[in-house]
Amino acid sequence: MTRGRGTVLGIVLLVAVGLALPSGNPPRAQTADLVRAIAAVGMTVADMDRSVEFYGQVLGFRKVSDAEAWGPELERLQGVFGLRVRVVRMQLGDEQIELTEYLTPRGRPTPIDSRSNDRWFQHVAIIVSDMDRAYAWLRAHRVEHASPAPQRLPDWNFNAGGIRAFYFKDPDGHPLEVLWFPPDKGDPRWHRPSDRLFLGIDHTAIVVGSTEASLACYRDTLGLRVVGGSENYGPEQERLNNVFGARLRITTLRAPAGPGVEFLEYLTPRDGRPAPADTRPNDLVHWETILVGEDAMAVAAAVRKGGCAMVSSDVVAPSEATLGFTKAFLARDPDGHAMKLTQP
User: Fold this and answer.
1) Which of 25, 138, 174, 343 could be cross-linked to 296 through a Cys-Cys bond (beta carbons 3.0 to 4.6 Å apart)?
2) What pLDDT band is residue 8 in, cutting at 50, 70 and 90?
3) Residue 120: CB partners within 8 Å, gap ≥ 6?
4) Domain 14-20+110-217+228-254+261-268 fold
């Protein structure tokens, strides 16, 4: 997929299939510059050393920071009393993930029966230079499969034909995806000569119950721009997601910088479960899309007007910028996916 129009499983030409993009984007005056970048994608882990080894040794990420933090400001930010966390940032290409281990209190494990159409589902899509080599490498490191094997998207899907994808899981059960683009598809940076197998993160994908409700949060409130959309189905899609009968409406959004955010709305089957109402940031199903804005107070004011929901009691200003921000707050979208807005 090309920057500015791409989506993970390729865009069927919108005119050809009669699929319009979701009602445009909001006027720039309303949401301009609220969010300047998606800085990282965060997840809660049970054993930091194990996770650092997995993402470093298996997927080629490098550690860029490692810190512990605790105290009343962080408790108010995350909504978890008595916490102490270890937070590690890791980078692949130009993109970063943020791993958080709650040293106290410990949260709940990922449900063993989690499915790709459950609405707590979130993953990151990692671009690879060679799918066969990447799959052999992952097999050699005994990763847990989520797809039975890499799937090649069919040629009838004009903009996606030849793209290959595979779902698997990290040691905590977080779903991950590797993607390979043929020469005529994808952002040009994924085709630059490189001796690396794992190149960077294209996007994070989230399952949503209603595309329109999610657009009210990410587009209309936060100002992300819709850059692509498609409707995907067929045996390759079913096997990729490991959901029989999967038919998805996919919508891709981007901030001015950083990886994209992709909505996965399952048109069929409609039996995906909502995120438990009592999910907390120390539970292992917790992910955070970490956004950067120049004015956290302005973004919080926009969130309070609707579309998204505040989790933090207010914008928090830690006495020390141990975790790399001066102000921040946590919010959730209509399906419970968490977003952390940070101000440098």
Assistant:
1) 343
2) very low
3) 114, 207, 273, 275, 276, 279, 285, 336, 337
4) 2,3-Dihydroxybiphenyl 1,2-Dioxygenase; domain 1 (3.10.180)
Using the structure block, give the residue that is written with the tokens 């949503």: 208
Six token digits for residue 280: 């907390």
312: three-class secondary structure by DSSP: coil
What are the DSSP E strand ranges found in the chain? 37-45, 62-70, 84-92, 95-104, 122-128, 144-145, 151-152, 164-169, 175-180, 198-208, 225-233, 247-254, 260-268, 287-292, 309-310, 327-332, 338-343
> Does residue 173 or residue 19 have the better pLDDT?
173
SS3 state at 104: strand
Average confidence (pLDDT) over 101-115: 96
Q: Give bridge partners of residue 291 from the DSSP assignment.
A: 38, 341
**pLDDT tens digits for range 287-307:** 999 999 999 999 999 999 989
Q: How many whole angstroms separate alpha carbon 235 and alpha carbon 77?
A: 43
Handedness of CA 114, 118, 124, 125 (dihedral sign): positive
Sign of CA dihedral 279, 333, 167, 187: negative
Q: Work out whether the CA dihedral 171, 172, 175, 179 comes out positive or negative.
A: negative
Domain ranges of the chain: 14-20+110-217+228-254+261-268
| 188 or 212: which leads in pLDDT | 212
**pLDDT, tens only, 39-84:** 999 999 999 999 999 999 999 999 999 999 999 999 999 999 999 9
- Token pair belonging to 337: 């996916």
The token pair at 60 is 């080629």
Query: CA-CA distance, 146 to 306, in Å (whole number)?
Result: 35
Give the start-end residues of each E strand in 173-304.
175-180, 198-208, 225-233, 247-254, 260-268, 287-292
Give the model's pLDDT for residue 228. 86
Tokens of 98: 């943020």
Bridge pairing between strands 164-169 and 175-180: antiparallel
Q: Phi/psi at 250 (nearest 5 deg)?
A: -115, 130
First vs last Cα of the chain: how many Å apart? 31
Residue 55: helix, strand or coil by DSSP?
Answer: helix
